[in-house]
Structures are given as structure tokens and as C-alpha cells.
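A quick aside before the break. I want you to see a complete sequence-to-structure record at least once, exactly as it would be stored in a machine-readable document. Don't worry about memorizing anything.
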Amino acid sequence: MNLKENKLIKYFYEAKEELEKVSWPTRKETLMSTLLVIGVSVGTAVFLGALDFGLNKALSTLIAQ
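That is the input. The structure line, written in C-alpha cells, reads:
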């Protein structure tokens, strides 16, 4: 049995060939994308935290009356 006839070996061989075709991002592009994701995540957390705080205060005021 030829080594390339084994399905598992063939899978890894073809996966390696496909990975060689991939256009990988540069270090700068990766850094910028990472910073963008972190920035959007922090912005979303701050917005949702402020919204939660505001709604909590409003609901507390309504219940206290």
C-alpha cells in the first residue's frame, strides 16, 4: 500500500498543500486587527455596563417610590 493511499496520510498531505496557498496576514495587520477587537470589546463592555447601571438606578428609583 502506497503511503499516499492511506486516507489519514492523504488528508494531512492535502491540508499541508492548502496551507501553503494561504495568504497569511503580516505582523502589523495581525496587531492592528487584535487591537481593533480589544477596542471594540472594551467599548461594548463600557456601553453595556453604563446601560446596566442606568437601568438599575432607574428601576431602583421606581421601586422605592
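Two observations worth writing down. Helices lie at 7-21, 27-64. The mean pLDDT is 92. We'll return to this after the break.
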